[in-house]
Each structure stands twice: as structure tokens, then as C-alpha cells.
Design brief:
By secondary structure, the chain is α+β, with helices and mostly antiparallel strands. It is 55% helix and 12% strand. It has a five-stranded mixed beta barrel with strand order 4-5-11-7-6. Helix 5 packs antiparallel against helix 6, helix 9 packs antiparallel against helix 10 and helix 14 packs antiparallel against helix 15. The model has no long low-confidence stretch (mean pLDDT 96).
Length: 597
């Protein structure tokens, strides 16, 4: 019943005309990503998403994964064959280092492809997504031997990867973890403990699963300062690189979840499993954060991706379902009633989702370009500033895009009326699947605290000041353009509210930290509104330029400008409400004693 069409033309408009990614041809990999290559990659990725991933989405939801008595796990029907197609297409290494078999194409292109795959089948796309995160951590912090042992086969998709952080008694507070690592005197460690909520922890789609596991070496300090990171393969690796015996790693059970049933979320037991240290002893969080930050960006992308597919199906239903007549007069006299898309409240829902999706797509691609600059530019100052900007944006992308992604799946479900509550229509799956993205990789309240408590002040606030300057400069540079006056006026108002909230924290949160905690959620969403507004201003300017040139699809560009106007009319004013709430501080929030709840 549901359907999906990859938004390729919108991606191309953002890359080519809004972000003008060809400006970055001086960076490694970009010269190989000519416009025709980029379009060819996106169109093939769209085909894979629509024809390979999407048909298995409801299958995965209905069948789920099955754990057998020996601890092995079978994925839903068709998953193994689909993963083989993904692997054979070379998608795993699209943006990875060519030294280990990757194609070395820009991360921004990898990001665009990932949106399509996550929209089509979020649970399935998590298998390669986690592998790519593990590859990144090994690439940055692994030894040469570890890189040569693991990366080529992970890039090829022969082996997959996971990240193992959470334990039954501790989630975000990793300083409480109990998994232990005992040195063996030969450079290896025996790992013992239990990890929970391990996505893709066990499955039947690869020859080996490479687990990255946080553990505490015997005698290490308590708290986060005593945590180390280890590579623990499901099967031991022989000297010739082949897969050997089992390695004391087993799936104890599969979690019974609300959604993403097609992904095997496992309880993983480590019983004297042999592992090797990644990076330095007691500095495992630093190494794992490479993977965690990639995962957080990927989760933010999931919020956008599931909002997009929910929107597409809500539009189809709203055009087809007839009910009532338009308030302004009959629109479809040939029918007994008008389709519900004529009604303003239906349009409110659809336009709200659409305005988020198109700005969110630009936002995450813009951020991915920052990542490319951070990791590929030879200009150390430029790279460092982009890295700081990425650090600042990561909690915003993760928190805002997943909060809104879930909210919008619910809005899309509402368009169906009672049919939205019936499983065969598919909308309830999108609601259920979207819900986890607000929780894992650091619940969104933690993301907001991270933004306000750590990211704003890093390096003297250089990252946030760079963001303020970029948005402010755009408003200043375009203030004489009458066609942009409406948009820059509202963007500047949102930026002013964000700057006022930032200053309020500076003046009121140092002496009273609860003020920062009380306002962090509002601040994160205010930041997100300004970032999305900036993306709409950029898109509006590009669309107006295309209209002036007389090139391209006029209706498409007219629709861009109309959607942008809706965003600034109906969504951007929320910055004022966020600022008002932030400015009240924590007093009323914390007034009731604990025992009164």
C-alpha cells in the first residue's frame, strides 16, 4: 500500500544550485564527483532504495528477526539477498578511503544516498550504517595492522560492524559500565560482560561481525577516565585473514521493540572473548566518539528520511480521499466531494512537514559539506573551524531532526483518519520506527544539554560565533534585494532571538546551572529553526536566480519560494516562544520537591 520515490531532483538542486558543491573541487574526492557522476550515483541509489530496500520494509516489520537456540539470528525474508546487492554495488565504501577499497567520493554524496536508503527501509539501512561508523573509528584510531586486517573486508561488506556501549544498569552515564578487560600479556585482552540494545549485533548477512566494545581494563580508574575501546570479532581472525573459531561472543536475546523490527537489536554476552585495544588505554571514549558522532548524524538523517516517506504517502492519500467540500467553493464538481487536500487544516499539516523536509535535506547536506572540509582540507584553519561547526551542529541535527521527524510521522498518519491506525496502510510503522531515533545515540534531552553545556562554550564559543556570522552575513549581503527582503527580515529576527537566548545563558546559567538545563530543549529547537530558516533563505535565493535565468522547471522553483514563505510565516515565529520560555529560568520547573511527585 505505501510507496516511495527518492527526491533526486531536490537533492540535485540543493547540491548544484544552493550549496554549489563544485566550489570544493580542490578537496580530495570532489574532482571525481563531477555533476554527471553525482547525478548517476543518486539515480542508481534511488533505484536501489525504491526497488531493493523499500519492498522489504513491511516484510521486516511483520516478520522481524528470529534468534535460534544456538544464538544465531535469521533476518527477515529477502534481507540477506538485498544486502548482497548492496554489497556488490560497492555502496558500503562510497565515501571511504581508497587505500582500503573505498571509492573516496565526498561524504556529502554518501549522506544524500543514505537518506534514500533510510527512507526506503530504516531498519535495513542500519546494518551498513553501523558498519560505516565502526570503519570510521578503526580508520582514525586503529593501528596499521588493525586497519589492514579489518577495513578492506568491512568496506567490501564481507564483514559488518557494531558499537557496544550500553549495559543493563547504565545508559548515557558510561562511567558506570562493568564490562572488564583482562590483559593476556600478548597484546590481547579477555573481554567479559554484557551489553544491551546492540543494533545489528547478530545476523546472517555477513561472514563476520566486528564489534567495537567499551570495557574497563583491570585496575583502571573509575568513571569515564578508565574506559578503553576494543575490537572484538564474532569469529577469530586467522593469520591469513580468514575467519577462524568462535570468539566467546553470543547473542543472548533479541529485544522486543516498538519498531525497527527488521533490525536485530541484541543483548550481547562476552565471555572471555579475545579483543585488541583501539587507541590508547583509558581513552576509549575519545575513540568511540568518532563512531558516536557519525551515528548521531546518521540518526538525524533518519528523522528526515522517515518524515519524507511519511509525507509522500500522506500527500497521495490526501489527493485521493474525498470528504466534504472546500470552504471557498466546490473544487471538483465531477466528484461527490472534494479531496481532503483542499482543506486548510490538511494543508497546514502537509505544508509543515514539507517545509521541514526540504529545509532539513539542505541542512544535513550543508553540514556534510562542513564535514568534508574538516576532514579533507589542507587549510588547517579552515578544517579546524569546520570541525568546530560540526561539533556544534551534531546535537542540533540529531535532536531537532528526530523530534520533528517523529512529530511529522504522527501528522502524516493523521491525514489517513482511521486508516492511519490500521497496519496494512503502513503509517503506523513509520510512527513506531521514528520513535526510537529520539532515544538512541543519546536521548534528545542529552543532546540539548550537550549543546548548551559543552558545545556553545568550546574554544571560546568560536563555533557558534562562526554560525552567527555566516547567517548574519547572508542577511546583510542580501538586504538590498527586494525579492529577498521578506525572507531575510524573518531570518534576522530568528537569529536575533537565538543570540539573545545565548546571551541570557551567559548571564544567568554560570551561577545557576539549572537555568541552562531548563532552557536547553527550547534552545536546541530555536537553533534548529534558525538553521532551517537559513537553509530556506539559501534555497529561495537560488530558486529566484533560476527563475531569472529562465532555466529549469518554473513550477518547481515557484513551489520552492511558496514553501519558504510558509516556513517564515508559520514556523519561524516559534523562536519568540522559545526565547520567552528560556528567559523564565528554572524556578517554576524545579519548585516542587522530589517527594511531591
Amino acid at each position: 500500500m505505501p510507496s516511495y520515490s527518492a527526491p533526486i531532483d531536490d537533492t540535485l538542486f540543493i547540491l548544484n544550485d544552493v550549496l554549489k558543491y563544485e566550489r570544493f573541487n580542490n578537496l580530495p574526492g570532489f574532482a571525481d564527483a563531477s555533476p554527471d557522476i553525482v547525478e548517476a550515483v543518486l539515480r542508481e541509489a534511488g533505484r536501489v532504495a525504491e526497488e531493493v530496500f523499500f519492498p522489504l520494509n513491511q516484510v521486516g516489520d511483520q516478520e522481524g528477526c528470529i534468534r535460534h537456540d544456538d544464538g544465531s539470528v535469521t533476518t527477515p525474508k529477502g534481507f540477506k539477498e538485498a544486502f548482497s546487492q548492496y554489497k556488490e554495488g560497492g555502496w558500503m565504501g562510497l565515501g571511504f578511503d581508497p587505500e582500503y577499497g573505498g571509492q573516496g567520493l565526498p561524504y556529502v554524496l554518501h549522506t544524500a544516498v543514505s537518506e534514500y536508503l533510510s527512507s526506503a527501509n530504516m531498519a535495513f539501512a542500519m546494518y551498513p550504517g553501523l558498519t560505516q561508523g565502526a570503519m570510521a573509528a578503526i580508520h582514525v584510531h586503529g593501528t596499521d595492522e588493525q586497519k589492514q586486517t579489518y577495513l578492506p573486508k568491512m568496506v567490501e561488506g564481507i564483514w559488518t560492524g557494531t558499537m557496544n556501549l550500553t549495559e543493563p544498569h547504565c545508559g548515557t552515564d558510561l562511567g558506570l559500565l562493568r564490562t572488564k578487560a583482562v590483559p593476556q600479556g600478548d597484546g590481547t585482552f579477555k573481554i567479559t560482560g554484557q551489553k544491551i540494545f546492540i543494533s545489528a549485533g547478530e545476523h546472517d548477512m555477513s561472514d563476520n561481525i566486528i564489534h567495537l566494545v567499551l570495557a574497563r581494563i583491570e585496575g583502571a580508574p573509575e568513571g569515564v577516565k578508565g574506559i578503553s575501546l576494543f575490537i572484538v570479532p564474532k569469529f577469530a581472525i586467522n593469520e591469513d585473514g580468514s575467519v577462524g573459531d568462535t570468539n566467546g561472543v553470543s547473542c543472548g536475546s533479541i529485544e522486543e521493540k516498538m519498531g525497527i523490527h527488521g533490525n536485530s537489536t541484541c543483548v550481547m554476552n562476552y565471555d572471555d572473548a579475545v579483543g585488541t585495544l583501539v587507541g590508547e588505554e583509558h581513552k576509549g571514549l575519545k575513540a568511540m566518539f568518532i563512531m558516536m558522532n557519525e551515528a548521531r548524524l546518521g540518526v538525524g538523517l533518519q528523522g528526515l528520511a522517515i518524515s519524507e516517506i511519511a509525507y509522500q504517502n500522506a500527500v497521495i492519500y490526501a489527493k485521493d480521499r474525498i470528504q466534504g467540500r472546500s470552504l471557498s467553493g466546490v473544487k471538483h464538481a465531477d466528484k461527490k466531494a472534494d479531496p481532503i487536500i483542499v482543506h486548510p487544516d490538511v494543508r497546514r499539516n502537509l505544508m509543515t512537514i514539507r517545509s521541514f523536509n526540504e529545509a532539513g535535506r539542505a541542512f544535513i547536506l550543508w553540514a556534510a559539506l562542513k564535514s568534508d572540509v574538516a576532514h579533507r582540507s589542507e587549510d588547517k584553519e579552515e578544517a579546524a573551524l569546520s570541525e568546530e561547526m560540526m561539533g556544534l551542529l551534531t546535537p542540533v541535527i540529531k535532536g531537532v531532526l528526530t523530534d520533528k521527524g517523529f512529530e511529522h510521522t504522527v501528522m502524516a498518519q493523521q491525514m489517513y483518519g482511521g486508516h492511519g491506525y490500521i497496519e496494512e496502510w503502513g503509517m503506523s510503522q513509520y510512527v513506531r520506527d521514528a520513535r526510537i531515533a529520539m532515544i538512541y545515540e543519546g536521548a534528545n534531552g542529552i543532546q540539548a544539554l550537550d549543546l548548551v553545556g559543552r558545545k556553545l562554550g568550546m574554544n571560546g564559543g568560536r563555533g557558534v560565533q562562526a554560525f552567527f556570522k555566516e547567517v548574519g552575513d547572508f542577511c546583510q549581503d542580501n538586504r538590498e534585494d527586494e525579492n529577498l527582503a521578506f525572507f531575510t527580515k524573518h531570518l534576522k529576527k530568528g537569529l536575533n532571538d537565538l543570540q539573545s537566548a545565548t546571551m541570557w545563558f551567559v548571564q544567568n546559567a554560570m551561577a545557576k546551572p539549572d537555568n541552562a538545563g531548563a532552557g536547553s530543549h527550547d534552545y536546541m529547537h530555536m537553533f534548529g529553526l534558525v538553521a532551517l530558516g537559513y537553509m530556506w533563505a539559501l534555497q529561495t535565493k537560488a530558486a529566484q536566480e533560476k527563475l531569472a535565468e529562465g532555466t529549469g522547471d518554473k513550477q518547481y522553483f515557484d513551489n520552492k519560494i511558496a514553501t519558504s514563505r510558509f516556513f517564515f510565516d508559520r514556523v519561524m515565529p516559534e523562536t519568540s516562544a522559545h526565547l520567552a520560555r528560556i528567559s523564565t529560568g528554572a524556578d517554576s520547573m524545579m519548585a516542587i520537591p522530589e517527594d511531591a511527585f
